[in-house]
Each structure stands twice: as structure tokens, then as C-alpha cells.
Amino acid sequence: MTVRAFIILLGVTVLAIWLGDRIAQDFSAPGLERTFTVLVIAAAVVAPAAWLLGRLGWINSGRIEFSRNSNSQPPRNGGQA
Q1: 68, 9 Cβ separation under 8 angstroms
Q2: CA geometry: angle at 71 spanning 65 and 74, to 5°?
Q3: Do the beta carbons of residue 34 and residue 25 sit within 8 Å?
Q4: CA-based angle 36:54:14, to the nearest 5?
Q5: 5 within 8 A of 53, measured Cβ to Cβ
Q6: Euclidean distance between CA atoms 43 and 78, whole angstroms
Q7: Domain membership flag for residue 64
Q8: What are the CB-based long-range contacts (under 8 Å, 24+) for 59-64?
Q9: Entry pTM
């Protein structure tokens, strides 16, 4: 996942939860019912956004990279803790 995709998905998620909360306040009771309503609304907004970013190539499925140069240099302390 690129940094741009992460920032976009973070923003979309925050907006989707805010929107879901605003909608759920009017139609559901406080507690677990409202939480589930917000979850469904947020998932309905975030899932297509993630799919679109995946189609654009900003999210690569099946490849995990924790750092850019993970195999290029050995640890500085010689591999000992």
C-alpha cells in the first residue's frame, strides 16, 4: 500500500464514520444498535474506495513490505540483541 492510499483511506474512513454517526443518531437507539449501524454505513463507503484504489494500483494485495530496503543491509549490532 502506498502512503497516498493510506492517507486517502484514513480520510475516507474518518468521514464515513462521521457520516454514519450523523445518520445513525436519527434512526437507531444508543448502544450496540447504533454501533452496528455506523459499522455498516462505514463499510459501505470504505469498501468501494479501497476497491477503487486497488484497481488504480495503489494497494498491492499479497505483498507486505515493512520497510523499503528490508534486505539491503544487515543490522548495525551484528544481529545480536
Answers
A1: no
A2: 130
A3: yes
A4: 40
A5: yes
A6: 45
A7: no
A8: 59/1, 59/2, 59/5, 60/1
A9: 0.69
Query: At 23, phi and psi to the nearest 5?
Result: -75, -40
Instruction: With both helix axes pointing from N to C terminus, report the angle between 3-27 and 32-56 in degrees, rounded to the nearest 10.
Output: 150
| Tens digits of residue pLDDT in 24-68 | 998 888 899 999 999 999 999 999 999 999 898 888 766 655 565
The parent domain of residue 41 ranges over 13-56
Largest CA distance in the chain: 60
Residue 77 lies in a domain: no
Cell numbers describing residue 76:
548495525
Total of domains in the chain:
1
**Listed residue (19, 13, 17) closest to 47, CA to CA:** 13
